[in-house]
Predict the 3D structure of the following.
Amino acid sequence: MTSTEPRFEVVRPLGRGATGQVELVRLREPFAGLPVGAELALKTLATAPEHEHAARFQP
């Protein structure tokens, strides 16, 4: 599980790419009008070391 958000329970990974990963999650508590148990796709953005971010923006 990549998310440390306590309101979500990770059901299974759905995919991974260059910018992050997507997991199927289940709500542990109501959120944004959705009931407990609702399943959602949650994308977690990948983090890169600071020097990699800076290198992308160098001329």
Remarks:
- The first helix runs from residue 50 to 56.
- The chain has one domain: 8-56.
